[in-house]
Amino acid sequence: MYSRVFLVGIFLFLIAGFASLGFWQLDRAEQKRSLFAAFAAQDAVATQLVDGDAAGDQRYKRLELTGSFASSQQILLDWMTHEGQVGYQVLTPFQVAGSDCWLLVNRGWLAGSPDHSQMPDVSVGEMQRTVTGRIDVLPRPGLQRADRNDGMAVTWPRPLLYPTIEEIESVLQLPIAGYQLLLDADAADGFVRAWQPRSMKPENHIGYAVQWFAMSAVLAAIGIGLLVRFRKQ
After folding, report:
1. What is the rounded distance in angstroms from the CA atom of residue 181 to the CA atom of residue 198?
2. Is the peptide bond between 157 and the residue preceding it cis, with omega within 30 degrees of 0?
3. Does residue 106 contact residue 168 with C-beta atoms inside 8 Å?
């Protein structure tokens, strides 16, 4: 008797757990719909630095600033891929005109040497200009190692593997806004800029939700079948 109650309890627990995972995936799908809609939206362009980071409702907002690049100290985001090829994304410090405010402008992707022995030429003019792009977070790894940038030579441009804003501030010795700006594809002095949201599509989350709900339904059917069998016994 107790074993049957225990077995029923396990089935109920698993059914509820799988169903909750399905609803969680549906919630994630809705979040991703909002994220992709924000990327596609043609918002009004802000003309001053946005406070905070890009993790909240600032992500993919459009921003237009006047200032100048600092060409001598640039960051190369290492192991960034484009169409299956490994290379770099170029982060160039940009000082907003008439202020001490700095922003990282992502000028796009370019290929690197196969053995990383030679840094690409990413020099850029330092005359005053206006840049326009979208606010975004820095790329993040699936698994993060604490020593990922330890022991790397101090060269310029400086290759870094999934750095944080704080790490870049330490390297540049500059106060940096807590996000990057994805330079518009038609802007001058950029590289490959096939910008897309770096996130799983809503359809994928819905597919996972269907799988979890299906597993919950299968367990429910098995559980009902066992209950019927127990009653007959």
Report:
1. 14
2. yes
3. no
* pTM given for the model: 0.76
Structure-token pair, residue 39: 């990327």
Distance CA 106, CA 84 (A): 20
pLDDT in tens, 77-108: 999 999 989 999 999 999 999 899 999 999 99
Distance (Å, whole) CA 33 – CA 202: 6
Phi-psi region of 8 (alpha: psi -120 to 50; beta: other; left: phi over 0): alpha
Helices (H), the chain: 2-40, 165-172, 202-232
Helices (H) and strands (E) in the chain, counts: 3, 7
Q: How many CB atoms lie within 10 A of CB 59?
A: 18
Q: Indicate the SS3 state at residue 43.
A: coil
| Strand pairing class (176-183; 102-111) | parallel
Residue 33 structure tokens: 């719909």
* Residue 21, CA atoms < 13 Å, CB-side half-sphere: 15
